[in-house]
Amino acid sequence: MPVTENTPGSPQNRLSGESPCQVADWTEDGHFLVRTGGKCYQVPRHCPHRGGRLDHGDVNHQWGTLVCPLHRSVFRLSDGEQISGPPCGPLLVKEQL
Fold first, then answer.
1. Overall number of domains in the chain
2. How far, CA to CA in Å, does 76 sit from each of 9, 69, 84?
3. Using CA of residue 11, residue 30, residue 48, residue 1, what is the dihedral sign?
4. CA angle (92 as vertex; 59, 9 as ends), nearest 5
5. Please, are residues 19 and 3 in contact by the beta-carbon 8 Å criterion?
6. What gap in Å lies between CA 41 and CA 85, rounded to an integer?
7. pTM, whole model, 2 decimals?
8. Which domain holds residue 75?
9. Cross-strand pairs, 32
10. For position 89, which CATH number holds?
11. How many whole angstroms separate alpha carbon 39 and alpha carbon 88?
12. Any residues with CB less than 8 A from the CB of 8 and at least 6 apart, and which?
């Protein structure tokens, strides 16, 4: 069952698994934070392929991946590597300590 976080004035984040996405800011630019597997990752807000809003994407907590909602590209959160979808290269993901 999806878990969502509702913050006043913010978009909903569709997630599955252990905890909701923690968003650093609600602007169109920048990054947001994803917590999964006991770790926290800073993720770019937009997909490098066509600018899809990754903060509206799906997090697979079992596999530690993020799926772009626009063209369904899949990225590994641990290193940002793209593992499926239209070729666009990795995300600049940073693990937060």
1. 1
2. 29, 15, 10
3. negative
4. 55
5. yes
6. 21
7. 0.71
8. 2-96
9. 43
10. 2.102.10.10
11. 25
12. none
